[in-house]
Amino acid sequence: MTDLLIRNVRPMGGAACDILVRGGRIDRIGPALEAPGVPVEEGGGAIAVPGLVEAHTHLDKTLMGMGWYENVVGADLRAMIDNERAERRRLGHDPRRQSMRHALALAGAGTTHVRSHVDVDTENGLAALEGVLATREDLRGIVDMEIVAFPQSGLVSRPGTRELLDEAMALGADLVGGLDPCGIDRDPRGHLDAVFGLAERHGRGIDIHLHEAGELGAFSMEMIIERTRALGMRGRVAISHAFCLGMPDWVRTEALLAALAEEDVAILTTGAPSREVPSVRRVLDAGLRMGAGCDGVLDTWNPWNRPDMLDRARIVAQKNNFRSDADVELALHVCSTGGAAVMGVADHVLAEGRPADLALLPGTTLAEAVATGGPVTLTLKGGRVTGRQGRPEREAP
Amino acid sequence: MTDLLIRNVRPMGGAACDILVRGGRIDRIGPALEAPGVPVEEGGGAIAVPGLVEAHTHLDKTLMGMGWYENVVGADLRAMIDNERAERRRLGHDPRRQSMRHALALAGAGTTHVRSHVDVDTENGLAALEGVLATREDLRGIVDMEIVAFPQSGLVSRPGTRELLDEAMALGADLVGGLDPCGIDRDPRGHLDAVFGLAERHGRGIDIHLHEAGELGAFSMEMIIERTRALGMRGRVAISHAFCLGMPDWVRTEALLAALAEEDVAILTTGAPSREVPSVRRVLDAGLRMGAGCDGVLDTWNPWNRPDMLDRARIVAQKNNFRSDADVELALHVCSTGGAAVMGVADHVLAEGRPADLALLPGTTLAEAVATGGPVTLTLKGGRVTGRQGRPEREAP
């Protein structure tokens, strides 16, 4: 286990001090610490924050390092799903190699925890899952990874998918995924019963993509809450995107937020610029756990997202019209401590006794670090240096 | 006047060729051009596009190079306006120096044309305008600059402002500005009559900030169109932001777009992530001229925007949910040729006989250049190199 003395850093942008790591945990935080024989990292006055948390991504989708992908599909959800399923083969997409590239890029950019959805479908079977499972094993000690078995192409509308998800859970996936119970499967009851059934059978949590907007999304959200309550799954369900919470009807969304809070359903956002999205402040004020993610990075869906949670904090902040330093810090919180809470890491903070999972950011204040966008100068996972100047210590394949 | 041979570039991402500049204009575009004695720039296979056009910014506001500005104001428009007016003095803001920093950064990032609003108010008088006018003079041959005399703090509600705007136009401002006729002055008729009156008196065009959303914005927009028609100002009025065109009522906005098209009123967008914004495709399909801008950069309003129109093309694309390569090219068009058309440069394209105002972008395709975000490898203004690798050739103060 790692021992390390980090000199001259400013926890959360406060006064400069040292951080002593022993056995992979933060042993002491204070001025002028001494630890003879312990290796030293010079922090240079950088801001120390808890490791960034990528809580919604798709490690099995990226085309990083495979050249420019010309997108001729546009923005129709069904078309993007069908296109990707077909393109995986045509492009010779290797989920093992690609998920390594993606996850290591995240580590280089300050990330210590990742929740990734991984496609499971009747065309590509469990190939993507097997690749990402191998990457998770390989990167143990670099990133903590949760895997969601994700029926991207539909579940009850594609016979055989349920059985594959069952197998995926047995193979080591951590959560059952789902998406758009109305929009994709056109059978909200069937879809959600299948998702919750699998979760119950394997004793696992759930993370459902909900792109459905307005009242349609609200309806699906209610059905998710009903099942969470009925099956006693309080605190074990997350909803990703949850665009419907961004609809203008505040009375309606206030009620939805209260119902979500009762069942401790977590919300994951990407701050999607082109969509209505949940308000960070309202979600947190309602007492919900909230995290964020970059979504797919350089894939057949879009070329926009970067594997960088500091960049994501900026996107989330801008989408929420955050301008004051205090508001910007809230966006950063969601990209770190907030996301960790969704992943079941209850106390992801810089404190003595906690794992030495942290990132050093350049800048005088947290808000400046978000606005200028790094690069993150150092990433530590369990006290081990996993990234420097925005780049991973370990070379990607 | 400048002669230059640019070797090995790909106009609009097409086949590689050379571009010969003579007397500041594009003389020939073709393969293996010869021009003995003419200096040569090696393009390295980069994509050549018409110079980027920053068509909505505030050169007099930036705090670039003045250290981190802690924002405690938040997102209320009136509060942001009042805060800035007071802070200019406290911070010792020098509009001459700051506008130089901002404009040169734009030039370094591929920009050849800039339209800047400049604050005119009874507290700071014409100081900002004088600073930006001096910068415009200083940067002649580096960027073509249009200046909008902008009553940021209100017009008819602040006695003395009208007279200052009058003076500003006489001093050399190119257009009369205005903002939120209902929201700020609380007197749409008074505000717009004053703006159009000044424009008529000085024989100049108009560019009005319209943040007002939904029906309120639509009402103000109608009043702008009415006055444009009544005063015979067809083709000489632009509306910046025009958030109301992003409202969900497509029947209503379709009618507004048709009315705008009749009077050839141009639209300028920033692709603001947190607001409803005009759809690029709908605005262009309606036959309107449309440009884009980064808005204020690192100022008392927000820390988000960068002086970089390639970055802005990405933001506009994301806001419009553009994903296919063809759609992304449309966002880039708006940030170049589209914005030029708003500034009265009707034919801002790479063609023989046109001024040699162009930018070289890295990447295999236009969409890749937007997605990866540069840096722009070379900026040319009238054939003169004004930027390299994202940095201005001339050092900023």
Can you describe this structure in just a few lines?
Two copies of one chain form a homodimer. With 397 residues, chain A is of the alpha/beta class. The first copy, chain A, contains eleven helices and 16 strands.
Largest sheet of chain A: 8 strands, mixed
Which parts of chain A are unreliable, with pLDDT below 50 for 5 consecutive residues or more? none
Helix content of chain A: 25-40%
- What is the third-level CATH name, the topology of the largest domain in chain A? TIM Barrel
Structural class of chain A: alpha/beta
String of helices and strands of chain A: EEEEEHHEHEHEHEHEHEHEHHEHEEE
Give the DSSP E fraction of chain A (strand runs of 2 or more residues): 15-25%
Structural description of this entry:
2 copies of one chain form a homodimer. Chain A is globular, with a radius of gyration of 20 Å. The first copy, chain A, folds into 2 domains: about 90 residues, Roll (Urease, subunit C, domain 1); about 290 residues, Metal-dependent hydrolases (TIM Barrel, Alpha-Beta Barrel). The first copy, chain A, has 11 helices and 16 strands. An 8-stranded mixed β-sheet of chain A has the order 3-2-1-4-13-14-15-16, with helices on one face. Helix content of chain A is about 35%, strand content about 20%.
